[in-house]
Amino acid sequence: MNKKIAVIKGDGIGPEIIEESVKVLKKIEDKFGHSFELIYVDAGGAAIDKCGKALPQETIDVCLASDSVLLGAVGGPKYDSQPAENRPERALLGIRSLLGLYANLRPAKLFDQLRDASPLREEIVDAGIDFMVVRELTGGVYFGDHVTEEKDGEAVAYDVMKYSESEVKRIAKVAFDTARLRGKKVCSVDKANVLDSSKLWRKVVVEVAKDYPDVELSHMYVDNAAMQLCKNPAQFDVILTENMFGDILSDEASMITGTIGTIPSASFGDSTRGMYEPIHGSAPDIAGMDMANPIGTILSVAMMMKYSFHMENEAKVIEEAVGKVLDQGYRTKDMESANTTVIGCKEMGDRIAELI
Amino acid sequence: MNKKIAVIKGDGIGPEIIEESVKVLKKIEDKFGHSFELIYVDAGGAAIDKCGKALPQETIDVCLASDSVLLGAVGGPKYDSQPAENRPERALLGIRSLLGLYANLRPAKLFDQLRDASPLREEIVDAGIDFMVVRELTGGVYFGDHVTEEKDGEAVAYDVMKYSESEVKRIAKVAFDTARLRGKKVCSVDKANVLDSSKLWRKVVVEVAKDYPDVELSHMYVDNAAMQLCKNPAQFDVILTENMFGDILSDEASMITGTIGTIPSASFGDSTRGMYEPIHGSAPDIAGMDMANPIGTILSVAMMMKYSFHMENEAKVIEEAVGKVLDQGYRTKDMESANTTVIGCKEMGDRIAELI
Ligand SMILES: CC(C)[C@H](C(=O)O)[C@@H](O)C(=O)O
Ligand SMILES: CC(C)[C@H](C(=O)O)[C@@H](O)C(=O)O
């Protein structure tokens, strides 16, 4: 198959981890006879440095004309003084919104080889950590009005957390569909005892659930969910939640699996075009030091194969290669534990690509 | 000293845990020659059952005329069908707001005796968990407009997350003052890379910090904070955050200390009148079974002594009594671990009161 992939290296460790993922893409091309046309475009700090704008029009155009987007990471303290609307993070939010990527899938799965890296006790880890966070990505307080104004002689700022029925409906469907292919359980997280948007959320989710009688639905308040992720993560199969809660809970979820360096993510909308990126940030403190963990990005490539290109087998081969390298005891610095060999970002990429 | 205390038993396990706390209050009265006048009033489900209203005017009046308020817990599935504005939770929010309790202090401290109950690994627990979450309690998305409306043929709901300069300023001061009496570090948690209210939050906190050159200030995004609480809780001294983030993070924080059953909280405003309550909920599933953990409420009484009545010694005596009972190996069911003796709520209350 021929596929066009827009590649955004981004900032900090972004370029390094993308480089290793490209090695993997090339190996998949060779091995399976595909042709991936990689089109490099800029967004975030790198784009600000080049042309002053965090999200140039060309980048949007190329993304829209591609079959999928691969992103490293954006942002860094260097850009903190940018005006709000031109911060690297805004570029990320802009792409999500302009491409209509309302669904964000973030797997929280503990690699057996990384058990020791989980901050949770062995008994809890033993019960298993393997769930998927389905986060709504283009609504809620991220995309409602943001206003700062003068009122009664002082500054007042507000952000609007907003959801419509149809926005909730489409993401709920994604969660139930995802659950059908997994453990058939959806836990919808909200704050319906306080928020109107959560009340609507819960009502619509209950409606959608009627079309999925084979999937078990439960509801949990977000504060309780933050606790349960530490106490008993084995109870979860699919967690469905809105944008802001999903941001918080998916980060907590990734941490309990040991290292956020290994967690990929997929964002998509109604078409097969998706954006794939590791959930970790741009880590400017270790940029250029060959210390970054490329696995989150490489597994994001695997998600791209599966979700955008329906290349199940290609995805599996990548995942297996990652598993093998971990089996052999190789770790980047962030995953270090007793009896393991620490290697650099490049060597990790080489070893994974080699095993494909 | 003579003090008037408004006592709200609430729902579920509320009445049981309040009963044990009252035993403690009586012992403190006797031992230190104080006189505590307890005025029982209703709020939440219990009030709905009696008079149809979750927050009767009489309750508000009595609270306002008291030196402090002691609350068990409110809410339960029985009241889920109440209209939004009459839910038990609304009574809680109403009291917080009407009494001007903008500051909520939630200590996250691991009792040495309960180390085994923490879901975190020993190495992490060994590093120590002892910090204070200072949560803004009368602003943000809890108290902005809540609207559900029909738009373009479908329901749309929104909630407004709003902060003014003065609201941020006063809670920031509480955090810095708290830090001064502790480890002299404040970590302010926000989502300033996305939200206007967070940007204002950060700006004001930075301003307030100038009056506290002896206190170290850092900033953290809320998603990262949710991770760091699991990864390295020892890094925190005082966490300062807005209402919703505080709800989520303080629950996560309490969980890592082992059991939410032991965590007290204090809410106050500009006067010494505060409201004191455990952070756990009404646990209707175990209500009336003599299984509840009264320690969170008893330690809330200790916080009342300290923060509202400036009775440092009385607070210490209560805390020490709790420590001794745990030392002796007594636990309520929720704290059970190897080599401990499980006792009921009443016996736990009796034993603690006896040691005062
Ligand atoms: C960088 C930031 C805007 C972003 C978000 O909050 O969505 C990030 O934290 C994420 O989770 O992808
Ligand atoms: C019951 C609920 C409204 C409340 C809150 O969210 O503030 C509770 O979770 C708390 O933290 O005290």
TrEMBL record, chains A, B:
Gene Ontology MF term list: 3-isopropylmalate dehydrogenase activity
Keyword Amino-acid biosynthesis attached: yes
Residues the record lists as binding Mg(2+): D223, D247, D251
Compartments, as annotated in UniProt: Cytoplasm
Substrates-to-products reaction catalysed: (2R,3S)-3-isopropylmalate + NAD(+) = 4-methyl-2-oxopentanoate + CO2 + NADH
Key words, A-Z: Amino-acid biosynthesis, Branched-chain amino acid biosynthesis, Cytoplasm, Leucine biosynthesis, Magnesium, Manganese, Metal-binding, NAD, Oxidoreductase
Residues annotated to bind NAD(+): 76-89, 281-293
Cofactor: how bound: Binds 1 Mg(2+) or Mn(2+) ion per subunit.
The Isopropylmalate dehydrogenase-like domain, residue ranges: 4-352
Keyword Magnesium: yes
Uppermost EC category: oxidoreductase
Site location (Important for catalysis): Y142, K191
Functional pathway: Amino-acid biosynthesis; L-leucine biosynthesis; L-leucine from 3-methyl-2-oxobutanoate: step 3/4
Cofactor: Mg(2+); Mn(2+)
HAMAP family (alphabetical): LeuB_type1
Function recorded in the entry: Catalyzes the oxidation of 3-carboxy-2-hydroxy-4-methylpentanoate (3-isopropylmalate) to 3-carboxy-4-methyl-2-oxopentanoate. The product decarboxylates to 4-methyl-2 oxopentanoate.
PANTHER family, per the entry: 3-ISOPROPYLMALATE DEHYDROGENASE (PTHR42979:SF1)
Name of the featured protein: 3-isopropylmalate dehydrogenase
Taxonomic source organism: Breznakia pachnodae
